[in-house]
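Thread: Newbie trying to understand structure tokens

Hi all, I'm a second-year student working on a class project, and my supervisor (Dr. K.) asked me to get a predicted structure for one chain before our next meeting. I've only ever worked with sequences, so writing a 3D structure as a token string is new to me. If someone could post the tokens and maybe explain what I'm looking at, I'd be very grateful. Here's the chain:
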Amino acid sequence: MILVLRALGVGDLATAVPALRGLRAAFPDRTLALAAPAWLAPLVDLVGGVDRLVPTDGLDGVDWPGPAPHWAVNLHGRGPRSHRVLQAAGPQRLCAFHNPEADHTDGPPWSADEHEVDRWCRLLDWYDIPADPSDLGLSRPSPHRVPVGVTVVHPGAKIAAKRWSPGRFAAVAAELTRAGHRVVVTGSAAERDLAEQVAHRAGLPGPAVLAGRLDLSGLAAVVAHSRLVVSADTGVAHLATAYGIPSVVLFGPVRPEHWGPPADRPWHRALWAAAMAGGDDQGLPGLDPEVPDSVPVDGDSRHGATHPTLAAIGIEQVLAAVDEVDQVGRTRYAVAT
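---
Reply by user tm_fold:
Sure, no problem. This is what the structure looks like when written as tokens:
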């Protein structure tokens, strides 16, 4: 049994896909169990290769009733809390970053300055397990009962500092509609009011609001069969990457070099005001899963305001980026067919 800990969200699971595939290839005859939130089950199915989902939320512990795993693999964080959660399962070996505080002196050193995908591939490489960081694809769900060919506008994000202005999202949605895009607004049930606000200000019809009407499988299907995605730095952006759907992702405060789409894929654009202005803003680290309720914000943005780096991105910059990736996407489709 190989027990893997990644008890986080959609984007977190999506960035761990290459590492999960590397583990599957390295241990083809062993059961691969993933400790992750139960609501991620539809996405785990789309990853493939995972034999068992162990429902786990955060670092309160893994309900592990079985025998001690052969290996426990920490794809959750740097420790010590996540290391200790896995150590409690009594694995024969722990694959994790070096953390003496957790009595784990094995493993490579942690680096805050690397892409999340590369981080976990580097960890496995230290343990002689190859993983391909470009292997980000997910199985494409059936488009049954979801709109296809739409342009997805996703204004929400769990962290307030990552949310662009609803008025600006509405302006983008209105311009895209005028340009011939069939726009839908997605989000969680908790973001339904935000989605309705964006849709109303953009002049979109009621059925264009999909927030709160889709489960995770339905959201993945909408993205997988969409024309284009415009979103904040959140899980939907990672779904667009996984399905090769043209996307424009608005970053702030976390740098796209740490969480953005692959830089070598021109049908994805990561917008970050500091980079566009040629500045030297180094950005801020992302969520630290070892620290409860940690947020990647500072200054006045700590308690809910949009981060200044994100607020500096203008509507025209987003629309220009949409035009670019949409054209690249159409060219790719024409070549493929």
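A couple of things are worth pointing out once you decode it. The first strand starts at residue 2 and ends at 5. The two ends are 43 Å apart (CA to CA). Feel free to ask follow-ups in this thread.
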